[in-house]
Amino acid sequence: MHFTHRNSNLLRKTTLTVTSLAAAGALFAGCSSDTVDSAKDAAGAASDAAGDAAGSAKDAAGAAGDKAKDAADKAMGADGQDGADDDVAAGDMAETQIQGPQGEITVVQPIADKYQQVGGVQGHLGSPEGEQQQGPDGGYFVDFEGASIYWSPETDAHFVQGRIKEAWLADGGVEALGYPTSDEHPIEGGLQSEFEDARITFIDDQTEVITED
Length: 213
Known about the structure:
This protein has helices at 2-76, 109-117, 162-170, 173-177, and strands at residues 95-100, 103-108, 133-134, 140-143, 148-152, 156-160, 185-187, 190-195, 198-203, 206-211. It folds into 2 domains: 1-76; 89-211, no CATH class. The protein has 4 helices and 10 strands. It is globular, with a radius of gyration of 46 Å. The chain is an alpha+beta fold. A hairpin with a 2-residue loop joins strand 7 (185-187) and strand 8 (190-195). This is LGFP repeat-containing protein. Keywords: Signal. Residues 1-29 form the signal peptide. InterPro entries: LGFP (IPR013207).
């Protein structure tokens, strides 16, 4: 009987121990599940935040790129060439008026600028002798009392005059030697003007046409 009583006590103790362990295991399992769920939630929130930050950075980079492209386009010009004014079509060139003997005449802006640069009507060019005329390759020219001013999109505006102008026209003018690329200027012993395909000197009362081979 005493032996049976001890076994019963042992059985009750064992049962309590197993029950306690089971309860602890269940509690641990519940806590572990909650912890995992919380970790998943935190990871999801971090991923969303990272995605939002990446999207914002991408948008900012795109906006910066667009601004840089716009700035480059403005710097390069509408046709994508550096210094777009050099390639502007004659029909798009700004025009203005200068005073002629019979009233104002319309000329492209570079011719007007050159005319004013050398003194206008009070300078050695004097007054225009007629209307602006169109030359080849989109150029224009105006004859004045003392010289002519020629302009083209490739050469800008320059005046040509006197014996050099006579020699230039005698050798074919714009069609043969191209537009002037400089104003007439002093050289040692005389004067010279450069053209697209030649230079003409005036030395010792003689003109010489030197073609560019």
